[in-house]
Amino acid sequence: MQAVQLVEAVGPQGVAITEVPEPVASDGQVVVDLHAAGVSFPDLLQTSGSYQMVASLPAVLGAEGAGVVRSAPLGSGLTEGQKVAVLALDGAWQQTVVLDPRFVFPLPESVSLTAGSGFLMNYLTVHFALDERARSRAGETVLVHGAAGGIGTAALQVAAALGMETIAVVSSDEKAKVAAANRATHTVMVDGFKDRVLELTDGRGVDVVLDPVGGDRFLDSIRSLNPNGRLVVLGFTGGEIPTVKVNRLLLKNVSVVGAGWGEYIRAFPDYTARQWADLEPRLKDGSLIVEEPKVVPMKAAVGALESLADRTATGKVSLSLRPDAVVE
User: Fold this and answer.
1) What is the mean pLDDT of residues 73-84?
2) What is the pLDDT of residue 214?
3) What is the per-residue pLDDT across 269-301, written as a single tens digit (0 to 9) for each?
4) Cβ-based neighbours of 57, under 8 Å, separated by 6 or more
5) CA dihedral defined by 12, 13, 14, 17, rounded to 10 degrees?
């Protein structure tokens, strides 16, 4: 079968389409023929060896995808021909995967295979950040940095489904349109965002900040919090890891917490079932919306990764793994 592998840790140029043996299922595993797989920021980090978990090369990239069940063990709740999304932490940029049933998620009819291919990583990360780490509640206001990117648009959609208002921070009018299309309550430009946030909240500030960017906006994010506010660190796409003087946390009674969802589910693999129990009903009733990603062929994997590196990507990007297949 075909796969997209990282063959040299030199950045996006180090990936290539290769032929690899089809995996063989062990007892209790599910076999899924993937139609598409999501492209995420950890994939970009892995291409330069800068992700916290460095894989031995060559390595299949990707951690999420969607396809059709080829076979499943009895008692798994999965059936042959079923449409599913998957978490394939050992590599999803390949045409067939074998998985523990805990990492296979039935898709409602309303979610296409292309949409399903690129939402688990971002939606489950954001749900973890809001629900588990920020302990947020319906009616609160969430400030979302990088709001036109994959994590950002997921944050807007999940927060809306959980009954929260959102303020999307963007860097251009085009990205403001993307945020608005993903149910942002308000959009503000990154320059001067703190003052605009205080205006929109009548001086109170926001309850939660979701920050996948880091960099020089971090301090103003803390200043944008109301008392008891929580800033959740999701990553550093801006390239700079900020620091915080903890006296600011003391004086304002605010918290800064990390949200490393990938590490969390490695330690607590049953946690994803709890998340899915909350999110699946929202997918079925339409309160949680999954937007269609930009889908590119396997041969465009380098460009997809580069669009994350230069921050030109808006929304989610996925790779089509079976260009001859009909994806509904």
Assistant:
1) 94
2) 82
3) 899 999 999 999 999 999 999 989 999 999 999
4) 5, 6, 7, 8, 9
5) 100
